[in-house]
Amino acid sequence: MGGGARELCGYLAALGGWVSALAAAVLPQWRQSSYAGDAIITAVGLHEGLWMSCAAQSTGQVQCRLHDSLLSLDVHIQTSRALMVISLLLGFFGIIVSVVGMKCTKVGEEDPVTKSRIAVAGGVLFILSGLCSLAAVSLYATQVTYEFFRESAVPINARYEFGSALFVGWGAAGLSMLGGSLLCCSCPAKERRAQQYHRQTQPSTAREYV
């Protein structure tokens, strides 16, 4: 795979990861009601996310409400919020920087070595964005797992389990890190530097013989 095609594939994968991370951050299905056990004790399905909680009735009606207070939220929710916001910001800057540094674009610098370094910087931003998304989703999933298996008087079919947004977040983290890694492969090769050095020194050598 050529350098330009590799950069384009990495950029598209990272862009897809950023869009998926945005969807995961907005979705309220970070955890949902568990239907494990012998009997279902309620006809209402509960979903909770970073920003709101929703109740889905068996008739199909869904009611959502934003979290009332930021300071009253659990620590893992506040931490996951912050990590997802940082991830989205890093990914946004990575999108802009990568466009400038890709070989298939005519934006910014025309020097191929400089553009490659800019593309690598965009790849690093995407990798950091993916790591933040991975940390946020994994932290939230760890808390859900702990609350599900700990000793409690709450019936098992009234507890919470993983929601679909967690899997979207894991996929987003994987795509962002994969795309960032492909962009980081745009680092200038030693052969290219040697060719540039040879072209710069060749005219002066010819003048000496004249």
Can you tell me about this structure?
It is a multi-pass membrane protein. Pfam families: PMP22_Claudin. The chain crosses the membrane at residues 82-102, 118-142, 162-185. GO terms for molecular function: structural molecule activity. This protein has 210 residues and is of the alpha+beta class. The chain is 62% helix and 10% strand. The protein has a 5-stranded antiparallel sheet. Helix 1 packs antiparallel against helix 4 and helix 2 runs antiparallel to helix 3 (112-149). The two termini are 44 Å apart. Mean pLDDT is 81; it is low at 204-210.
Briefly say what this structure is.
With 210 residues, the chain is an alpha+beta fold. Helix content is 62%, strand content 10%. It is elongated and about 65 Å long.
Task: Outline the secondary-structure elements.
Layout: H1 3-26, E1 31-33, E2 44-48, E3 52-57, E4 62-66, H2 75-101, H3 112-149, E5 160-162, H4 164-184, H5 190-209
Antiparallel strand pairs: 1-2, 1-5, 2-3, 3-4
Helix pairs in contact: 1-2, 1-3, 1-4, 2-3, 3-4
Keywords:
alpha+beta; Butyryl-CoA Dehydrogenase, subunit A, domain 3; 5 helices; elongated; disordered C terminus; transmembrane; Claudin; cell membrane; transmembrane helix; PMP22/EMP/MP20/Claudin
- The CATH architecture classification is Up-down Bundle
Strand content range = 5-15%
Order of helices and strands: HEEEEHHEHH
- Regions with pLDDT < 50 over 5+ consecutive residues? 204-210
Strand ordering within the main sheet? 4-3-2-1-5
- How many DSSP E strands? 5
- What is the terminal-to-terminal distance? 44 Å
Gyration radius, in Å: 24 Å
The level of helicity is 55-70%
CATH topology: Butyryl-CoA Dehydrogenase, subunit A, domain 3
Quote the average pLDDT. Answer: 81
Number of domains: 1
Structural class: alpha+beta
CATH class, named Mainly Alpha
Treating each run of at least 4 consecutive H or I residues as one helix, how many helices?
5
Sheet with most strands: 5 strands, antiparallel
> Could you say which overall geometry the principal axes of the C-alpha atoms support?
elongated
Subcellular location: Cell junction, Tight junction; Cell membrane
Organism: Piprites chloris
Keywords: Cell junction, Cell membrane, Membrane, Tight junction, Transmembrane, Transmembrane helix
Function: Claudins function as major constituents of the tight junction complexes that regulate the permeability of epithelia.
